[in-house]
């Protein structure tokens, strides 16, 4: 579809309505996309909406004053008394453009000519989505969408499992490496979580240039190779360094999958896929230590085999990923299509808007590093939610150690301790089953409550988390059945699941086009807490006692659990005092 831009800043819908004038605009539906001609020198940058800035929805464009007006606009101005030469000049340009179409047919054949059909004006011909375009990720079949989502969340589950699978192998690793500083061994947990924190702030902008699929495949390949390096390590220093790198490369399985889901599903259809994503993240955390406990107990040098087994199955998944996963970032797909057209036609005017609107990689990375940090410390909603989910995430990482300590009270073997970790998997499944109730509450109350309708389940979780910690704390005795701590783990981890999912949806609803920065802020904070907690968990449990160590986390959680109640009551007023939120509200972007 070809149309010219107006001089004023405008919102351009990607599924444009054809003009009433056949001469001013021609539409070729069979090509599956539209070509919009502009004379343009500058475009503003566009913020990625929670990873879905690539979708074929409305885009905020800011054309320069040199933009050529459409023939229809020229005719309208002529009727209002403007000089008629403007309209005649436009007709002459259209006549020349039609001659170019026939020239395309002669030079490139009818197939490409059909793709390029339309009125041409100026020095830019935009390549855009058209309704029904089969390459638009929103138009993928439901089967294809869900297949891609399932395999992307497999990556999420893999990296979550890797976090915990390391723990059961620590005894055999210390024996094999003749290393007796247990606190240094525990650094392997912390540096992995630390690797999840900073690299995503750099990798996310790269996906705007390289595409999500390229980042997925490269990072997954390096993540897989590092299992071999860790499994062959001859000293603890090598293990620690490679665990950090593995967390950095594996972080895309946690941080980018949500963006892929946003690329594929509209906001109204995103609930179930996001619930699957959250389930994979929590389920994997318990599944890794479960099977690794059996390897540690029954195979000599078990820690090395834990790494080798992960290398085998992640390598197998990598092969499947190369076949199943396709690019979902719409701006990248259009940019590649425009590049292909330039090569096929030799005409350099064919461009995707993202090619001009995109800032340099350095600028993108700078913004990606600074904006989330600014929001983390200046936006009360982001700060409150980040602290709350961070405490819970830290407690989840603390469980990787404390479950072993509590199980030792009952003289559990590594395999029996691994079975206890299944409580985390059960919690993930329960959370997934409860999610439809949360979605229904949101749909029913959204017209009245707005973004705060996301907080019904979160308020419930605010009470569940301290309750779960209390159960876990006061049943951690050698003469009390292990069923008590297991129930406590299930309760507190269901709360973690609910809050994890609520953080994504509430911040996305609250910050609109800046949601990706808000989510990056909470993700950074969450993973820093996950990195810190294992460093003092053992000392805390030994110094405070098993009961008060867990209870302390519950009491802090009780205080921070007031956040959803306060936001539910005063959320709109808090956002109104935020310069960013109020400006987004004024612009109609929330």
UniProtKB/TrEMBL annotation:
Example GO molecular function: transmembrane transporter activity
Keywords: Membrane, Transmembrane, Transmembrane helix
Claim: Transmembrane helix is one of the keywords in the record: yes
Compositional bias segments (type: Low complexity): 64-73
GO CC annotation terms, alphabetical: plasma membrane
Membrane-traversing stretches: 146-166, 186-203, 215-234, 240-262, 274-293, 305-325, 374-395, 415-434, 455-474, 486-507, 514-536, 548-568
Transmembrane helix listed as a keyword: yes
Family matches, as InterPro entries: MFS, MFS_dom, MFS_trans_sf
Bilayer topology: Multi-pass membrane protein
Bias (Basic and acidic residues): 74-109
Cell location: Membrane
Biased composition regions of type Polar residues, renumbered to the chain: 1-22
Domain Major facilitator superfamily (MFS) profile stretches: 148-590
Pfam families: MFS_1 (PF07690)
Region spans: Disordered: 1-115
Full protein name: Synaptic vesicle transporter SVOP and related transporters (Major facilitator superfamily)
């Amino acid at each position: 579809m070809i149309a010219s831009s107006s001089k004023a800043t405008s919102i351009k819908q990607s599924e444009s309505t054809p003009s009433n004038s056949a001469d001013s605009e021609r539409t070729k539906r069979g090509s599956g996309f539209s070509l919009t001609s502009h004379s343009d020198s500058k475009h503003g940058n566009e913020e990625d909406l929670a990873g879905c800035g690539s979708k074929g929805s409305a885009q905020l464009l800011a054309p320069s004053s040199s933009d050529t007006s459409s023939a229809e606009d020229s005719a309208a101005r002529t009727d209002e008394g403007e000089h008629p030469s403007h309209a005649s000049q436009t007709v002459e340009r259209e006549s020349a453009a039609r001659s170019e179409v026939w020239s395309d047919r002669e030079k490139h054949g009818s197939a490409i000519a059909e793709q390029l059909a339309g009125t041409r004006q100026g020095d830019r011909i935009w390549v855009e989505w058209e309704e029904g375009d089969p390459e638009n990720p929103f138009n993928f079949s439901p089967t294809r969408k869900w297949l891609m989502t399932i395999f992307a969340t497999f990556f999420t589950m893999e990296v979550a499992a890797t976090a915990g699978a390391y723990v059961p192998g620590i005894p055999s690793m210390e024996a094999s490496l003749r290393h007796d500083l247990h606190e240094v061994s525990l650094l392997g947990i912390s540096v992995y979580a630390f690797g999840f924190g900073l690299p995503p702030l750099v990798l996310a902008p790269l996906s705007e240039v390289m595409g999500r699929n390229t980042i997925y495949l490269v990072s997954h390949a390096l993540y897989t190779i590092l299992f071999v390096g860790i499994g062959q390590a001859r000293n603890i220093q090598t293990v620690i360094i490679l665990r950090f790198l593995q967390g950095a490369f594996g972080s895309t399985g946690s941080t980018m999958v949500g963006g892929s889901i946003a690329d594929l599903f509209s906001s109204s259809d995103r609930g179930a896929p996001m619930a699957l994503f959250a389930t994979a993240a929590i389920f994997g955390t318990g599944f890794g230590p479960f099977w690794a406990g059996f390897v540690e107990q029954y195979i000599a040098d078990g820690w090395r085999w834990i790494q080798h087994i992960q290398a085998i199955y992640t390598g197998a998944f990598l092969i499947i990923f190369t076949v199943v996963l396709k690019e979902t970032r719409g701006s990248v797909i259009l940019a590649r299509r425009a590049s292909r057209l330039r090569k096929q036609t030799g005409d350099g005017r064919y461009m995707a808007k993202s090619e001009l609107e995109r800032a340099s990689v350095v600028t993108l990375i700078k913004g990606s590093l600074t904006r989330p940090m600014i929001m983390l410390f200046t936006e009360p909603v982001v700060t409150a939610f980040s602290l709350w989910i961070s405490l819970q995430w830290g407690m989840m990482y603390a469980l990787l150690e404390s479950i072993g300590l509590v199980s030792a009270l009952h003289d559990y073997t590594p395999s029996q301790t691994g079975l206890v970790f299944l409580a985390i998997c059960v919690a993930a499944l329960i959370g997934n089953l409860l999610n439809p109730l949360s979605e229904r509450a949101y749909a029913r109350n959204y017209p009245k409550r707005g973004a705060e309708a996301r907080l019904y389940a979160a308020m419930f979780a605010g009470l569940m988390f301290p309750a779960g910690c209390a159960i876990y704390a006061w049943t951690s005795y050698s003469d009390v059945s292990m069923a008590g701590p297991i129930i406590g783990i299930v309760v507190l981890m269901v709360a973690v699941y609910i809050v994890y999912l609520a953080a994504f949806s509430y911040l996305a609803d609250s910050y609109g086009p800046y949601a990706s920065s808000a989510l990056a802020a909470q993700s950074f904070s969450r993973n820093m807490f996950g990195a810190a907690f294992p460093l003092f968990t053992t000392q805390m449990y030994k110094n405070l006692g098993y009961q008060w160590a867990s209870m302390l986390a519950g009491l802090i959680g009780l205080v921070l659990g007031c956040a959803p109640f306060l936001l539910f009551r005063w959320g709109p007023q808090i956002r109104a005092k935020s310069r960013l939120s109020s400006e987004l509200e004024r612009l109609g972007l929330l």
